[in-house]
Amino acid sequence: MSKEITSRAADYSQWYNDLVLKGGLADYSAVRGCMVIKPYGFALWENMRDALDKMFKDTGHVNAYFPLFIPKSFLSKEAAHVEGFAKECAVVTHYRLKNDPGGAGLVVDPEAKLEEELIVRPTSETIIWNTYKDWIQSHRDLPLLINQWANVVRWEMRTRLFLRTAEFLWQEGHTAHATREEAIIEAEKMLEVYATFAEEFMAVPVIRGVKTASERFAGAEETYCIEAMMQDGKALQAGTSHFLGQNFAKAFDVKFSNRENQLEYVWATSWGVSTRLVGALVMAHSDDSGLILPPRIAPWQVVIVPIYKGEDQKKLIDDKVKAITDELKALGIRVKYDDNDNARPGWKFAEYELKGVPVRLAIGARDLEQGVVEVARRDTKEKNVVKLEGISGYVAQLLEEIQTYMYNKAKAFRDERITPADHWDEFVRLLDEKGGFIAAHWDGTAATEEAIKEKTKATIRCIPLQNTKEEGKCIFSGAPSTQRVLFARAY
RNA sequence: CGGGAGGUAGUUCAGCCCGGUAGAAUACCUGGUUUGGGACCAGGGGGUCGCAGGUUCGAAUCCUGUCCUCCCGACCA
Fold first, then answer.
1. Would you say the C-beta of A80 is within 7 Å of strand B?
2. ipTM for the assembly
3. Partners of A243 in beta bridges
């Protein structure tokens, strides 16, 4: 016995915390609302980051880096933007400490007050558009397709590991275009990149949609989103892409000369995903034994555990494992050989299940004699004895199979939790008893949306793209509606 | 930010009500036996009791303040 995990049924929140902490992804820190991402969790994030970074580059984007600090005056230039972020900003007011003459230790030096206070970026639109003003003169400078990997700070009242922390890591893309159409295409394209990443790498199915006006990004004309379904029936926004119109161009006076030599405001997008995706990954797939990580982004795809009596057997196994790991590595498979003699096999089995390693190979003297190895897959917990000959090919194929299985399982779960509702009683009952997305008609007003939220805590997660049009009556007001939207309680 | 719970060894926790110089399990170290689902025996090391004040001859224990975490709520791309 050692690392007990709270079951999902007993306490879903605690289960999630247990997995993150005991699975070695992150720790709490001495700073309120901030976490330490541990090496195993960071390796997972690095794999996600690398895959996304490649996708951004493949779609023509380049990376750059803008300052952590934003002059306070910048934030207030776009009215909706300041409204949305002002309440959760960390502010730098001084630039020096000194020893208190009264002996109270280090104190802020009141004489070192900043002329203009600096905001720790909650997002970088303002500092970036202030810069773009200098970079864009002509239509020949467009489109400008830039991404940055950075940390941001949002002073949240209530935090949860990965899902909502005061400081988090993310990427933010900021692009500038000559036309409205081109900017919209960009925002939609990047949403599709996110959706592809979530589905193909994280094995998390997502719904592509647009946000309602009240859920829209502060300063955007349209916010596109991908929404995922967690195992407790709550929705989680996994990524957003915004069509910013000319709002920031106007706020920061960014104009370009078109082909007719007329000055026009630039059209903009921004888009981001964060370490919150790690939380989504945990809650979408894992079980009561621990994490279940999809092979394409798992830090270790395969772990090999030797089982032996005495040094002689150990040597024989070591030799065989060396051959196997060489084969696996040649196929680009990330493999760990755990021959630590301090822990026994049973302990290791439990440990790597907790850590969600997709495939485990156990190999002992008996196996060597018979030329076989025990292969255990984390997702289904199936165990098979497989011939050592051709094992690398078998494992490579198994990893693919696990990736597909995890996606299909999550998709079946998600699809089963999209339920249509046509009456208010049914809507409320579904939310309480079943959870998930509820597809219902909505009259399109913010007042109705707000009233539903107040009564049920459910919000409109999105209006799905390519939604089928359908005449109906609003679930709440009874007013006419042309399509169903997806409601859910959300993280 | 409001309500509740908590912070004592690396970890999980007992001790606190009723003040008297800190304990268990596990982990760790040494030696040995072990190794196919979280091993066993023997010996050993490890804690300014979150932090800062106060009361007291004496504080993990009582009082005040403060920091951090969890749960619920308010708030929140």
1. no
2. 0.91
3. A222, A269
